């Protein structure tokens, strides 16, 4: 395993490992998830996947490499079997981890996931690969426009107050075209993995986002249908970053599911804003 940066909070609680999507740093979970899970008496652990942050120039890695990275992190922290909350590429990693190393995972919440390419996703993948291999860096404003359209629902994009800060943030910090980001593009179900998911035995909640154009909800539902006993929840008015766009709905669903699997009583109450 390459030396991955991680953050481990509230060590008295039961561990929950968060796995980010392509291009996402572990700190992305600190916007809305980490505090909520701490208040629910869990031990949230976040980390930067290979290809992000200090390892952004890494190359030559595969889905299997990142599954091995995640397994080694779980073992090094002695947290197996661990609860997993993952999104997009993180969900792809979690799905393969549950097949390769089932003893390491207790339960999983998989968001914005899929088990195969459809025609549109195949074209999107090819287009992203062409951009990465060209070495071109889009103007920050244009790249921000694409990210906004891919990340959020039309409802949020039409909300001036909600979208203002995201426009500023995406423009100020554009995605860098790095070797690591290009490699992460291949960390995905590039063939039909749905039949293999019939061998996943852990309790799983799959969450699809109703306005996700990157990983449409119907592809997430396919994953839930493929995993024996898995549940499916679709959250409306949410795009690919639904865990940021609709955090209360995501956190409530995830925490209620984990509590049920753990046999723990749980009553949802959104955490007060730190500014209140």
Automatic annotation (TrEMBL):
It comes from the Bacteria. GO terms for molecular function: hydrolase activity; peroxidase activity. One of its GO terms (cellular component) is membrane. InterPro entries: AB_hydrolase_1, AB_hydrolase_fold, AB_hydrolase_sf. Pfam families: Abhydrolase_1 (PF00561). Residues 15-247 form the AB hydrolase-1 domain. Keywords: Hydrolase, Oxidoreductase, Peroxidase. This is Bromoperoxidase.
């Amino acid at each position: 395993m390459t030396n991955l940066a991680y953050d481990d909070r509230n060590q008295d609680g039961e561990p929950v490992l968060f796995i980010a999507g392509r291009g996402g740093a572990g700190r992305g979970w600190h916007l809305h998830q980490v505090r909520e899970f701490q208040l629910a008496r869990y031990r949230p652990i976040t980390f930067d996947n290979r290809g992000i942050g200090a390892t952004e120039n890494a190359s030559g890695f595969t889905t299997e490499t990142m599954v091995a990275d995640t397994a080694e992190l779980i073992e090094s922290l002695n947290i197996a079997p661990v609860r997993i909350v993952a999104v997009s590429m993180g969900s792809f990693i979690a799905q393969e981890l549950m097949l390769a190393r089932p003893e390491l995972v207790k339960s999983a919440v998989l968001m914005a996931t899929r088990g195969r390419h459809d025609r549109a996703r195949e074209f999107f993948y090819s287009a992203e690969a062409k951009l990465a291999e060209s070495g071109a860096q889009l103007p920050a404003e244009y790249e921000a426009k694409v990210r906004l359209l891919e990340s959020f629902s039309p409802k949020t994009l039409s909300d001036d107050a909600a979208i203002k800060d995201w426009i500023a943030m995406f423009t100020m910090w554009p995605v860098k075209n790095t070797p690591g980001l290009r490699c992460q593009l291949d960390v995905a179900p590039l063939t039909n993995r749905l039949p293999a998911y019939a061998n996943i035995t852990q309790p799983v909640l799959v969450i699809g986002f109703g306005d996700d154009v990157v990983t449409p909800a119907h592809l997430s539902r396919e994953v839930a249908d493929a995993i024996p006993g898995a549940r499916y929840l679709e959250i409306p008015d949410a795009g690919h970053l639904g865990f940021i766009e609709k955090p209360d709905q995501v956190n409530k669903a995830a925490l209620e599911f984990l509590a049920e699997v753990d046999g723990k009583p749980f009553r949802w109450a959104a955490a007060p804003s730190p500014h209140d």
